[in-house]
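**C-alpha coordinates**
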Amino acid sequence: MKKISLYDATLREGNQTEDISLSVEDKLRITVRLDDLGVDFIEGGWPTSNPKDMAYFKEVHSLRLRHARIAAFGSTARPGGAVETDRNLNDLLRTGAPVVTIFGKTWDLHIRDVLKITPDQNLKLIEQSVAYLKKNGVTVFFDAEHFFDGYRAHPSYALNVLRSALHGGADCLVLCDTNGGTLPFEVQRIVSEVAKKIHAPLGIHAHNDADVAVANSLIAVACGCSQVQGTINGWGERCGNANLCSIIPNLKLKMAYDCITDTQLKKISEVSRFVYELANLPPNKHQPFVGSSAFAHKAGVHVNAVKKRAATYEHIEPEQVGNIRRILVSDQAGRANILQKARDFHIDLASHDPVVQDILAELKELERQGFQFEGAEASFELRMRTAMGMQKRYFDLVGFRVIIEKKQDEEPLSEATIMVRVGGAVEHTAAMGKGPVNALDNALRKALEKFYPQLAHAVLVDYKVRVLTGAQGTASRVRVLIETRDRSDSWGTVGVSDNIIEASWQALTDSITYKLLKDELHDRTG
Protein backbone atom coordinates (compact mmCIF):
# COMPACT_ATOMS: atom_id res chain seq x y z
CA MET A 1 0.00 0.00 0.00
CA LYS A 2 1.53 3.29 -1.14
CA LYS A 3 2.17 5.86 1.61
CA ILE A 4 0.83 9.38 0.98
CA SER A 5 2.25 12.21 3.08
CA LEU A 6 -0.24 14.76 4.40
CA TYR A 7 0.89 18.37 4.56
CA ASP A 8 -1.44 20.77 6.39
CA ALA A 9 -1.29 24.50 5.61
CA THR A 10 -4.23 25.64 7.76
CA LEU A 11 -2.07 27.77 10.04
CA ARG A 12 -0.81 29.85 7.10
CA GLU A 13 -3.10 29.46 4.08
CA GLY A 14 -6.17 28.99 6.26
CA ASN A 15 -5.28 31.99 8.39
CA GLN A 16 -5.26 34.11 5.21
CA THR A 17 -8.97 33.43 4.72
CA GLU A 18 -11.26 36.45 4.85
CA ASP A 19 -12.87 36.80 8.33
CA ILE A 20 -10.36 34.42 9.97
CA SER A 21 -7.56 35.48 12.31
CA LEU A 22 -6.03 32.78 14.49
CA SER A 23 -4.03 33.77 17.55
CA VAL A 24 -0.73 32.11 18.45
CA GLU A 25 -2.56 30.11 21.12
CA ASP A 26 -5.19 29.04 18.57
CA LYS A 27 -2.48 27.86 16.21
CA LEU A 28 -0.74 25.87 18.93
CA ARG A 29 -3.99 24.15 19.91
CA ILE A 30 -4.71 23.28 16.29
CA THR A 31 -1.17 21.92 15.94
CA VAL A 32 -1.81 19.44 18.75
CA ARG A 33 -5.06 18.27 17.11
CA LEU A 34 -3.42 17.88 13.70
CA ASP A 35 -0.62 15.83 15.23
CA ASP A 36 -3.20 13.62 16.94
CA LEU A 37 -5.03 13.23 13.60
CA GLY A 38 -1.85 11.86 12.03
CA VAL A 39 -0.86 14.72 9.73
CA ASP A 40 2.78 14.34 8.66
CA PHE A 41 3.73 18.01 8.16
CA ILE A 42 2.21 21.12 9.73
CA GLU A 43 3.08 24.43 8.10
CA GLY A 44 3.27 26.97 10.91
CA GLY A 45 3.51 30.18 8.90
CA TRP A 46 5.82 32.60 7.13
CA PRO A 47 8.19 33.99 9.80
CA THR A 48 9.36 36.98 7.76
CA SER A 49 5.82 38.14 7.00
CA ASN A 50 4.60 38.91 10.55
CA PRO A 51 5.67 38.73 14.22
CA LYS A 52 2.79 36.38 15.10
CA ASP A 53 4.20 33.63 12.92
CA MET A 54 7.68 33.99 14.42
CA ALA A 55 6.11 33.84 17.90
CA TYR A 56 4.40 30.57 16.91
CA PHE A 57 7.73 28.98 15.97
CA LYS A 58 9.20 30.00 19.32
CA GLU A 59 6.30 28.43 21.22
CA VAL A 60 5.76 25.30 19.13
CA HIS A 61 9.03 23.74 20.29
CA SER A 62 7.50 23.31 23.75
CA LEU A 63 4.82 20.97 22.37
CA ARG A 64 5.47 17.26 22.61
CA LEU A 65 4.33 16.21 19.16
CA ARG A 66 4.15 12.48 18.59
CA HIS A 67 4.19 12.34 14.81
CA ALA A 68 3.99 15.60 12.88
CA ARG A 69 7.00 17.67 11.78
CA ILE A 70 6.72 21.46 11.74
CA ALA A 71 7.42 23.31 8.50
CA ALA A 72 8.32 26.98 8.03
CA PHE A 73 7.20 28.65 4.81
CA GLY A 74 8.88 31.34 2.71
CA SER A 75 10.16 32.26 -0.70
CA THR A 76 13.39 31.85 -2.58
CA ALA A 77 16.01 34.52 -1.98
CA ARG A 78 15.37 38.01 -3.32
CA PRO A 79 17.01 38.71 -6.70
CA GLY A 80 20.22 40.69 -6.69
CA GLY A 81 21.68 39.53 -3.37
CA ALA A 82 23.63 36.61 -1.95
CA VAL A 83 21.57 33.72 -0.59
CA GLU A 84 23.81 33.57 2.51
CA THR A 85 22.66 37.01 3.60
CA ASP A 86 19.04 36.79 2.45
CA ARG A 87 16.72 37.75 5.31
CA ASN A 88 13.89 35.45 4.27
CA LEU A 89 16.06 32.32 4.06
CA ASN A 90 17.80 33.06 7.34
CA ASP A 91 14.51 33.77 9.12
CA LEU A 92 13.36 30.34 8.00
CA LEU A 93 16.46 28.75 9.51
CA ARG A 94 16.07 30.76 12.73
CA THR A 95 12.66 29.16 13.36
CA GLY A 96 14.39 25.89 14.16
CA ALA A 97 11.76 24.07 12.10
CA PRO A 98 13.07 20.73 10.76
CA VAL A 99 11.27 21.30 7.45
CA VAL A 100 11.36 24.39 5.24
CA THR A 101 9.03 24.95 2.29
CA ILE A 102 9.97 27.65 -0.21
CA PHE A 103 8.16 28.69 -3.32
CA GLY A 104 9.69 29.83 -6.59
CA LYS A 105 8.32 31.12 -9.87
CA THR A 106 7.45 28.71 -12.67
CA TRP A 107 5.37 30.90 -14.97
CA ASP A 108 7.27 33.30 -17.25
CA LEU A 109 4.50 35.88 -16.72
CA HIS A 110 5.64 36.23 -13.10
CA ILE A 111 9.33 36.03 -13.87
CA ARG A 112 9.05 38.81 -16.41
CA ASP A 113 6.42 41.09 -14.82
CA VAL A 114 6.87 40.49 -11.07
CA LEU A 115 10.47 39.48 -10.39
CA LYS A 116 11.72 41.34 -13.48
CA ILE A 117 14.65 38.97 -14.02
CA THR A 118 15.60 36.60 -16.84
CA PRO A 119 14.43 32.97 -16.91
CA ASP A 120 18.00 31.76 -16.39
CA GLN A 121 18.44 34.04 -13.37
CA ASN A 122 15.25 32.55 -11.90
CA LEU A 123 16.58 29.01 -12.31
CA LYS A 124 19.84 29.95 -10.61
CA LEU A 125 17.98 31.68 -7.77
CA ILE A 126 15.89 28.55 -7.11
CA GLU A 127 18.83 26.16 -7.11
CA GLN A 128 20.99 28.37 -4.87
CA SER A 129 18.18 29.00 -2.38
CA VAL A 130 17.42 25.30 -1.99
CA ALA A 131 21.11 24.41 -1.75
CA TYR A 132 21.71 27.00 1.00
CA LEU A 133 18.86 25.63 3.11
CA LYS A 134 20.00 22.03 2.57
CA LYS A 135 23.53 22.98 3.60
CA ASN A 136 22.07 24.08 6.92
CA GLY A 137 20.57 20.67 7.60
CA VAL A 138 16.82 21.05 6.99
CA THR A 139 14.42 19.07 4.84
CA VAL A 140 13.38 21.26 1.90
CA PHE A 141 10.14 21.12 -0.04
CA PHE A 142 9.98 23.24 -3.17
CA ASP A 143 6.58 24.69 -4.10
CA ALA A 144 6.58 25.31 -7.85
CA GLU A 145 4.23 28.30 -7.82
CA HIS A 146 1.73 28.54 -10.73
CA PHE A 147 3.18 25.30 -12.05
CA PHE A 148 0.19 24.32 -14.20
CA ASP A 149 -0.11 27.77 -15.77
CA GLY A 150 3.64 27.77 -16.40
CA TYR A 151 3.57 24.27 -17.87
CA ARG A 152 0.77 25.16 -20.27
CA ALA A 153 2.72 28.23 -21.42
CA HIS A 154 6.22 26.66 -21.65
CA PRO A 155 6.44 22.96 -20.65
CA SER A 156 10.19 22.69 -21.06
CA TYR A 157 10.89 25.69 -18.84
CA ALA A 158 8.49 24.49 -16.12
CA LEU A 159 10.36 21.19 -16.07
CA ASN A 160 13.69 23.06 -15.83
CA VAL A 161 12.36 24.87 -12.76
CA LEU A 162 11.78 21.48 -11.12
CA ARG A 163 15.21 20.24 -12.19
CA SER A 164 16.88 23.34 -10.71
CA ALA A 165 15.20 22.72 -7.34
CA LEU A 166 16.19 19.06 -7.55
CA HIS A 167 19.82 19.97 -8.34
CA GLY A 168 19.81 22.15 -5.23
CA GLY A 169 18.77 19.13 -3.18
CA ALA A 170 14.97 19.55 -2.76
CA ASP A 171 13.37 16.58 -1.01
CA CYS A 172 9.98 17.00 -2.67
CA LEU A 173 8.80 18.99 -5.68
CA VAL A 174 5.28 20.31 -5.13
CA LEU A 175 3.20 21.19 -8.20
CA CYS A 176 1.03 24.20 -7.32
CA ASP A 177 -2.22 25.23 -8.99
CA THR A 178 -1.89 28.65 -7.40
CA ASN A 179 -4.70 30.35 -9.33
CA GLY A 180 -6.98 27.36 -8.79
CA GLY A 181 -8.25 27.33 -12.36
CA THR A 182 -6.87 24.04 -13.67
CA LEU A 183 -9.39 21.27 -14.35
CA PRO A 184 -8.93 17.60 -13.39
CA PHE A 185 -8.32 16.28 -16.91
CA GLU A 186 -5.51 18.85 -17.29
CA VAL A 187 -4.00 17.88 -13.94
CA GLN A 188 -4.12 14.24 -14.97
CA ARG A 189 -2.28 14.92 -18.22
CA ILE A 190 0.34 17.26 -16.80
CA VAL A 191 1.17 15.28 -13.64
CA SER A 192 1.46 12.09 -15.71
CA GLU A 193 3.89 13.78 -18.10
CA VAL A 194 5.93 15.27 -15.25
CA ALA A 195 6.13 11.94 -13.42
CA LYS A 196 7.68 10.33 -16.51
CA LYS A 197 10.37 13.01 -16.88
CA ILE A 198 11.20 14.02 -13.29
CA HIS A 199 12.37 11.17 -11.10
CA ALA A 200 11.80 12.63 -7.67
CA PRO A 201 9.02 12.72 -5.04
CA LEU A 202 6.17 14.94 -6.27
CA GLY A 203 3.48 16.78 -4.33
CA ILE A 204 0.24 18.60 -5.18
CA HIS A 205 -0.96 21.96 -3.85
CA ALA A 206 -4.38 22.90 -5.26
CA HIS A 207 -6.52 26.00 -4.80
CA ASN A 208 -10.28 25.83 -5.19
CA ASP A 209 -11.18 28.72 -7.50
CA ALA A 210 -12.80 26.35 -10.02
CA ASP A 211 -14.31 24.20 -7.21
CA VAL A 212 -12.20 21.17 -8.13
CA ALA A 213 -9.28 21.36 -5.68
CA VAL A 214 -10.16 18.05 -4.00
CA ALA A 215 -10.63 16.31 -7.36
CA ASN A 216 -7.35 17.76 -8.62
CA SER A 217 -5.52 16.55 -5.51
CA LEU A 218 -6.91 13.03 -5.76
CA ILE A 219 -6.16 12.64 -9.45
CA ALA A 220 -2.64 14.01 -8.92
CA VAL A 221 -2.04 11.27 -6.35
CA ALA A 222 -3.38 8.67 -8.76
CA CYS A 223 -0.89 9.96 -11.34
CA GLY A 224 2.17 9.79 -9.11
CA CYS A 225 2.18 12.49 -6.40
CA SER A 226 3.09 11.18 -2.96
CA GLN A 227 2.48 14.34 -0.94
CA VAL A 228 -0.85 16.22 -0.69
CA GLN A 229 -1.04 19.75 0.65
CA GLY A 230 -4.31 21.25 1.86
CA THR A 231 -6.16 22.80 4.78
CA ILE A 232 -8.76 21.73 7.30
CA ASN A 233 -12.24 22.66 6.01
CA GLY A 234 -10.72 23.91 2.77
CA TRP A 235 -9.85 27.34 4.15
CA GLY A 236 -7.56 29.62 2.17
CA GLU A 237 -7.35 32.82 0.17
CA ARG A 238 -10.14 33.65 -2.27
CA CYS A 239 -12.12 30.41 -2.67
CA GLY A 240 -9.89 28.34 -0.42
CA ASN A 241 -7.49 25.41 -0.72
CA ALA A 242 -7.98 21.70 -1.19
CA ASN A 243 -10.02 20.42 1.74
CA LEU A 244 -8.13 17.80 3.75
CA CYS A 245 -11.39 16.79 5.47
CA SER A 246 -12.51 15.42 2.10
CA ILE A 247 -9.12 14.38 0.71
CA ILE A 248 -8.12 12.18 3.65
CA PRO A 249 -11.26 9.99 3.74
CA ASN A 250 -11.18 9.63 -0.03
CA LEU A 251 -7.51 8.63 -0.04
CA LYS A 252 -8.00 6.08 2.69
CA LEU A 253 -11.48 4.69 2.11
CA LYS A 254 -11.94 5.04 -1.64
CA MET A 255 -8.40 4.82 -3.03
CA ALA A 256 -6.85 2.51 -0.39
CA TYR A 257 -3.75 4.64 0.22
CA ASP A 258 -1.87 4.60 3.50
CA CYS A 259 -2.17 8.05 5.11
CA ILE A 260 -3.67 7.82 8.62
CA THR A 261 -5.02 4.96 10.76
CA ASP A 262 -8.68 3.93 11.09
CA THR A 263 -8.67 5.28 14.66
CA GLN A 264 -7.27 8.62 13.54
CA LEU A 265 -9.82 8.90 10.73
CA LYS A 266 -12.62 8.70 13.30
CA LYS A 267 -11.31 12.00 14.75
CA ILE A 268 -11.59 14.03 11.55
CA SER A 269 -15.14 15.34 12.16
CA GLU A 270 -14.12 16.47 15.64
CA VAL A 271 -11.01 18.22 14.29
CA SER A 272 -13.10 20.00 11.65
CA ARG A 273 -15.52 21.35 14.26
CA PHE A 274 -12.69 22.25 16.63
CA VAL A 275 -11.02 24.43 14.00
CA TYR A 276 -14.33 26.14 13.20
CA GLU A 277 -14.85 26.81 16.90
CA LEU A 278 -11.43 28.43 17.38
CA ALA A 279 -12.09 30.67 14.39
CA ASN A 280 -15.49 31.59 15.86
CA LEU A 281 -17.28 30.44 12.72
CA PRO A 282 -20.36 28.22 12.42
CA PRO A 283 -19.50 24.82 10.89
CA ASN A 284 -20.59 24.18 7.32
CA LYS A 285 -23.33 21.62 7.97
CA HIS A 286 -23.35 20.53 4.32
CA GLN A 287 -19.61 19.81 4.19
CA PRO A 288 -18.95 16.28 2.87
CA PHE A 289 -17.86 13.62 5.36
CA VAL A 290 -17.69 15.89 8.44
CA GLY A 291 -20.76 18.17 8.20
CA SER A 292 -23.81 17.49 10.36
CA SER A 293 -25.90 17.05 7.18
CA ALA A 294 -23.44 14.70 5.48
CA PHE A 295 -25.43 11.66 6.65
CA ALA A 296 -28.79 13.34 7.27
CA HIS A 297 -31.86 11.81 5.62
CA LYS A 298 -35.08 13.72 5.02
CA ALA A 299 -37.17 12.09 2.28
CA GLY A 300 -39.37 9.27 3.51
CA VAL A 301 -38.23 6.91 0.74
CA HIS A 302 -34.60 7.44 1.75
CA VAL A 303 -35.27 6.90 5.45
CA ASN A 304 -37.21 3.71 4.78
CA ALA A 305 -34.35 2.34 2.67
CA VAL A 306 -31.59 3.40 5.09
CA LYS A 307 -33.43 1.65 7.91
CA LYS A 308 -33.20 -1.59 5.96
CA ARG A 309 -29.68 -1.11 4.65
CA ALA A 310 -27.63 2.03 5.18
CA ALA A 311 -25.59 1.55 1.99
CA THR A 312 -28.70 2.34 -0.09
CA TYR A 313 -28.16 6.08 0.52
CA GLU A 314 -24.78 6.31 2.27
CA HIS A 315 -21.48 5.94 0.43
CA ILE A 316 -19.56 5.14 3.65
CA GLU A 317 -20.46 4.43 7.26
CA PRO A 318 -20.62 7.79 9.10
CA GLU A 319 -18.79 6.32 12.09
CA GLN A 320 -15.70 5.80 9.94
CA VAL A 321 -15.15 9.58 9.92
CA GLY A 322 -16.48 10.23 13.42
CA ASN A 323 -19.87 11.42 12.19
CA ILE A 324 -23.40 10.15 12.86
CA ARG A 325 -26.53 9.34 10.88
CA ARG A 326 -29.40 11.79 11.37
CA ILE A 327 -33.05 11.36 10.46
CA LEU A 328 -34.75 14.68 9.75
CA VAL A 329 -38.41 15.54 10.11
CA SER A 330 -40.14 17.71 7.52
CA ASP A 331 -43.08 17.81 5.16
CA GLN A 332 -41.23 15.23 3.07
CA ALA A 333 -41.21 12.79 5.99
CA GLY A 334 -42.89 9.38 5.94
CA ARG A 335 -43.79 6.88 8.65
CA ALA A 336 -40.19 5.67 8.77
CA ASN A 337 -38.99 9.17 9.74
CA ILE A 338 -41.51 9.37 12.58
CA LEU A 339 -40.61 5.94 13.92
CA GLN A 340 -36.89 6.68 13.70
CA LYS A 341 -37.31 9.98 15.56
CA ALA A 342 -39.32 8.16 18.25
CA ARG A 343 -36.34 5.84 18.72
CA ASP A 344 -33.97 8.82 18.84
CA PHE A 345 -36.16 10.39 21.54
CA HIS A 346 -36.43 7.05 23.43
CA ILE A 347 -40.20 7.02 22.92
CA ASP A 348 -41.90 3.63 22.65
CA LEU A 349 -43.97 3.92 19.47
CA ALA A 350 -45.08 0.87 17.47
CA SER A 351 -45.23 1.07 13.69
CA HIS A 352 -48.90 0.04 13.64
CA ASP A 353 -49.97 2.64 16.23
CA PRO A 354 -52.52 5.02 14.60
CA VAL A 355 -50.86 7.96 16.38
CA VAL A 356 -47.99 7.68 13.87
CA GLN A 357 -50.30 8.85 11.11
CA ASP A 358 -51.68 11.59 13.38
CA ILE A 359 -48.17 12.89 14.08
CA LEU A 360 -47.29 12.76 10.39
CA ALA A 361 -50.45 14.66 9.41
CA GLU A 362 -49.81 17.32 12.07
CA LEU A 363 -46.20 17.68 10.94
CA LYS A 364 -47.20 18.29 7.34
CA GLU A 365 -49.86 20.82 8.36
CA LEU A 366 -47.48 22.72 10.64
CA GLU A 367 -44.83 22.92 7.93
CA ARG A 368 -47.49 24.18 5.52
CA GLN A 369 -48.05 27.01 8.02
CA GLY A 370 -44.33 27.79 8.05
CA PHE A 371 -42.96 25.68 10.90
CA GLN A 372 -39.61 24.02 10.32
CA PHE A 373 -38.30 21.32 12.64
CA GLU A 374 -34.94 20.43 11.09
CA GLY A 375 -33.23 22.94 13.40
CA ALA A 376 -35.87 22.64 16.15
CA GLU A 377 -36.09 18.99 17.09
CA ALA A 378 -36.93 19.85 20.70
CA SER A 379 -40.20 21.41 19.52
CA PHE A 380 -40.95 18.32 17.45
CA GLU A 381 -40.29 15.98 20.38
CA LEU A 382 -42.69 17.99 22.55
CA ARG A 383 -45.41 17.73 19.89
CA MET A 384 -44.81 14.00 19.52
CA ARG A 385 -45.15 13.47 23.26
CA THR A 386 -48.25 15.64 23.36
CA ALA A 387 -49.88 13.62 20.57
CA MET A 388 -49.22 10.45 22.57
CA GLY A 389 -50.59 11.94 25.79
CA MET A 390 -47.16 11.79 27.43
CA GLN A 391 -46.34 15.49 27.80
CA LYS A 392 -46.76 17.08 31.22
CA ARG A 393 -47.81 20.74 31.44
CA TYR A 394 -45.28 22.47 33.67
CA PHE A 395 -47.05 25.86 33.51
CA ASP A 396 -49.91 27.66 31.80
CA LEU A 397 -50.04 31.22 30.54
CA VAL A 398 -52.67 33.47 32.05
CA GLY A 399 -51.49 36.44 30.01
CA PHE A 400 -48.61 38.73 29.16
CA ARG A 401 -48.09 42.29 27.99
CA VAL A 402 -45.01 43.80 26.32
CA ILE A 403 -44.47 47.57 26.34
CA ILE A 404 -41.88 49.47 24.30
CA GLU A 405 -41.18 53.09 25.13
CA LYS A 406 -39.07 55.37 22.96
CA LYS A 407 -38.15 58.92 23.86
CA GLN A 408 -36.22 61.35 21.69
CA ASP A 409 -32.43 60.84 21.76
CA GLU A 410 -32.78 57.91 24.20
CA GLU A 411 -32.48 54.17 23.77
CA PRO A 412 -35.88 52.45 23.63
CA LEU A 413 -37.02 50.68 26.80
CA SER A 414 -38.74 47.27 26.74
CA GLU A 415 -40.76 45.90 29.63
CA ALA A 416 -42.74 42.65 29.83
CA THR A 417 -45.42 41.83 32.41
CA ILE A 418 -46.51 38.20 32.69
CA MET A 419 -48.91 36.02 34.67
CA VAL A 420 -48.49 32.23 34.70
CA ARG A 421 -50.15 29.40 36.60
CA VAL A 422 -48.00 26.60 38.05
CA GLY A 423 -50.20 23.96 39.60
CA GLY A 424 -52.60 25.91 41.80
CA ALA A 425 -50.31 28.93 42.19
CA VAL A 426 -50.40 32.06 40.06
CA GLU A 427 -47.25 34.11 39.63
CA HIS A 428 -47.40 37.69 38.36
CA THR A 429 -44.17 39.53 37.61
CA ALA A 430 -42.40 41.96 35.28
CA ALA A 431 -38.92 42.42 33.83
CA MET A 432 -36.96 44.77 31.60
CA GLY A 433 -34.91 43.65 28.61
CA LYS A 434 -32.84 44.66 25.60
CA GLY A 435 -35.77 44.53 23.23
CA PRO A 436 -39.24 43.06 23.64
CA VAL A 437 -38.27 39.40 23.22
CA ASN A 438 -35.47 39.63 25.75
CA ALA A 439 -37.85 41.37 28.19
CA LEU A 440 -40.43 38.58 27.71
CA ASP A 441 -37.77 35.91 28.19
CA ASN A 442 -36.55 37.60 31.38
CA ALA A 443 -40.09 37.94 32.77
CA LEU A 444 -40.99 34.31 32.03
CA ARG A 445 -37.85 33.01 33.68
CA LYS A 446 -38.36 35.31 36.65
CA ALA A 447 -41.86 33.92 37.14
CA LEU A 448 -40.85 30.28 36.80
CA GLU A 449 -37.47 30.08 38.55
CA LYS A 450 -39.28 30.21 41.92
CA PHE A 451 -40.78 26.82 41.02
CA TYR A 452 -38.02 25.48 38.77
CA PRO A 453 -34.64 26.86 39.92
CA GLN A 454 -32.79 24.74 37.33
CA LEU A 455 -33.93 27.19 34.64
CA ALA A 456 -31.15 29.51 35.81
CA HIS A 457 -28.72 27.18 34.01
CA ALA A 458 -30.50 27.40 30.63
CA VAL A 459 -29.19 30.23 28.47
CA LEU A 460 -30.57 31.46 25.14
CA VAL A 461 -27.55 31.45 22.80
CA ASP A 462 -29.10 32.15 19.38
CA TYR A 463 -32.24 33.84 18.08
CA LYS A 464 -33.15 33.94 14.39
CA VAL A 465 -36.14 35.50 12.64
CA ARG A 466 -37.10 34.71 9.07
CA VAL A 467 -39.88 36.42 7.13
CA LEU A 468 -41.86 33.67 5.40
CA THR A 469 -44.03 35.75 3.05
CA GLY A 470 -43.01 39.20 1.93
CA ALA A 471 -46.20 40.27 0.15
CA GLN A 472 -47.73 41.69 3.33
CA GLY A 473 -44.67 43.79 4.20
CA THR A 474 -44.41 44.36 7.95
CA ALA A 475 -47.52 42.20 8.48
CA SER A 476 -45.80 39.14 6.98
CA ARG A 477 -45.71 35.77 8.73
CA VAL A 478 -42.44 35.09 10.54
CA ARG A 479 -40.62 32.05 11.86
CA VAL A 480 -38.50 32.32 15.01
CA LEU A 481 -35.78 29.75 15.75
CA ILE A 482 -34.17 29.72 19.18
CA GLU A 483 -31.16 27.76 20.40
CA THR A 484 -30.80 27.21 24.14
CA ARG A 485 -27.94 25.66 26.06
CA ASP A 486 -27.40 24.39 29.59
CA ARG A 487 -24.38 22.77 31.22
CA SER A 488 -24.66 19.54 29.25
CA ASP A 489 -26.70 20.05 26.11
CA SER A 490 -28.16 22.41 23.52
CA TRP A 491 -31.53 22.29 21.75
CA GLY A 492 -33.54 24.18 19.16
CA THR A 493 -37.17 25.31 19.24
CA VAL A 494 -39.45 27.09 16.79
CA GLY A 495 -42.48 29.38 16.65
CA VAL A 496 -44.50 30.78 13.73
CA SER A 497 -47.03 33.61 13.69
CA ASP A 498 -48.06 36.83 11.96
CA ASN A 499 -46.87 38.48 15.21
CA ILE A 500 -43.15 38.29 15.98
CA ILE A 501 -43.80 38.43 19.74
CA GLU A 502 -46.23 35.52 19.53
CA ALA A 503 -43.80 33.48 17.42
CA SER A 504 -41.05 34.24 19.92
CA TRP A 505 -43.34 33.23 22.79
CA GLN A 506 -43.98 29.84 21.18
CA ALA A 507 -40.25 29.18 20.75
CA LEU A 508 -39.44 30.45 24.26
CA THR A 509 -42.06 28.31 26.00
CA ASP A 510 -40.98 25.23 24.03
CA SER A 511 -37.39 25.92 25.06
CA ILE A 512 -38.24 26.12 28.76
CA THR A 513 -40.63 23.16 28.62
CA TYR A 514 -37.97 21.03 26.93
CA LYS A 515 -35.42 21.95 29.60
CA LEU A 516 -37.82 20.86 32.33
CA LEU A 517 -38.69 17.64 30.48
CA LYS A 518 -35.04 16.82 29.86
CA ASP A 519 -34.14 17.28 33.53
CA GLU A 520 -37.12 15.22 34.67
CA LEU A 521 -36.22 12.33 32.35
CA HIS A 522 -32.62 12.48 33.53
CA ASP A 523 -33.70 12.35 37.20
CA ARG A 524 -35.97 9.39 36.40
CA THR A 525 -33.24 7.33 34.74
CA GLY A 526 -30.59 8.35 37.27
Observations:
- Residues 395-451 form a domain with the Double Stranded RNA Binding Domain fold (CATH 3.30.160.740).
- The chain is about 40% helix and 20% strand.
